[in-house]
Specification:
The chain is α/β, with parallel strands linked by helices. It is built from four helices and ten strands, in the order E-H-E-H-E-H-E-E-H-E-E-E-E-E. The chain has a single domain (about 1-160), classed as Purple Acid Phosphatase, chain A, domain 2 (4-Layer Sandwich), CATH 3.60.21. It has helices at about 20-25, 40-50, 65-70, 95-100, and strands at about 1-5, 30-35, 55, 75-80, 80-85, 110, 120-125, 125-130, 145-150, 155-160. It is globular and about 40 Å long. The model has no long low-confidence stretch (mean pLDDT about 95).
Amino acid sequence: MKICVLSDTHIPDRARELPAKLLNELKTADMVIHAGDLVDPAVYKALCDACKDVRVVSGNMDPSELKVKFPQRQLIRAGNFSIGVVHGWGPPNQLMGVVKDIFRKEAPDIVIFGHSHQVCNQKEGKTLYFNPGSPTDDVFAAFKSFGIIEITDTINARIVKL
């Protein structure tokens, strides 16, 4: 199973549309996960046009119409693995602690989050913490990016620089 992961698109504030390289990758995915801050509902439509299985959580910058449509957190099953998804909040240096607390009881195999625009692909214990960065904004990060997680009998996750 191939999962494309993105977060913090902030359209139209940071870009007019999703990058072509990302859109092409989305079309080959079995699932797309967006970890919040779509900002424009048209982003959700673009994701659904590219892939049949799209999962989204709301972020702090999303308008109220998206906050009522999408939950703040989600647990997803992918093969034999569980995935927790949340946008996150607060200062970047405290974000990992916030994210760990949110899913402490469920202890998913993967925790996907956003908010900081800074990539993370770090395993702690049995949990992979994964932040794909932002495909449209590099003000808070060294580069624009998204992520790909491939699930078979194992989890293989990588960051794709744009």
